[in-house]
Amino acid sequence: MIYYSITFRPVIPPGFSSRKAKEILRAALRSAAEYWHAEMLPGHFARDARGKYGYQPRSERYQGQKVRARGRGKAADTVDLVYSGLARDSALKPPRIKAYPTRARLDLLVPPYINMRPNRSGKRKNMPALGDEMTRVIYREAHELAQQAVVEAEVLLAEALGGKSDKPHKSVTAFFHGD
Questions:
Q1: Tens digit of pLDDT for each residue in 133-167?
Q2: What are the tens digits of pLDDT across the range 37-48?
Q3: Which structural domain, as residue segments, surrounds residue 138?
Q4: Which of 57, 78, 87, 179 has the highest CB neighbour number within 10 Å of its CB?
Q5: How many Cβ atoms from other residues are within 10 Å of residue 167's Cβ?
Q6: CA 23, CA 5: separation in Å to the nearest integer?
Q7: What is the pLDDT of residue 5?
Q8: pLDDT at residue 167 in the model
Q9: Start-to-end Cα distance in the chain
Q10: What pTM was computed for the model?
Q11: How many domains does the chain have?
Q12: 46-69: buried (b, 16+ CB within 10 Å) or exposed (e) per residue?
């Protein structure tokens, strides 16, 4: 699950209902979550993702095992987050998105070995936090998500006002906060 928030500072026009404003914020945050899933998540499975997102290096032993498994047709790729392709394929399926006026929650249905806090004992003590790596957002992407939400909120606000605005209505600003 992704726990990031975009804080809106909307300026609601006089006579505009609080309920309608909340609907607009909910739709804008849903749009940002959909954008992350469609445009940014696939980049986590690319060859350059380790450098871009700062993934934990994999051990030589693991890399060798993965190359041998690929030769036998058991591994799909040698990219960090892809072994058989199950996690990638599962993560890229349509997610369940719950949007609220203050936040959006995106649930990815992934295999159980993709978790945010792996067990750090025994044989898996060096296992990277695959869930954290898969959902990591860099600053540029955070800014892009905030802008996506702002643009969507502006469009919906203009539609709700009936397109009465003679100039772009800059009534929404957003700040991105990551946990």
A1: 888 888 889 889 888 888 898 888 888 887 655 44
A2: 999 999 999 989
A3: 4-178
A4: 87
A5: 5
A6: 17
A7: 58
A8: 46
A9: 12
A10: 0.82
A11: 1
A12: eeebbeebebeebeeeeeeebeee
Q: Which of 22-36, 38-52, 72-86 is least confident? A: 72-86
- What's at 74, amino acid-wise? K
Count of residues making up the chain: 179
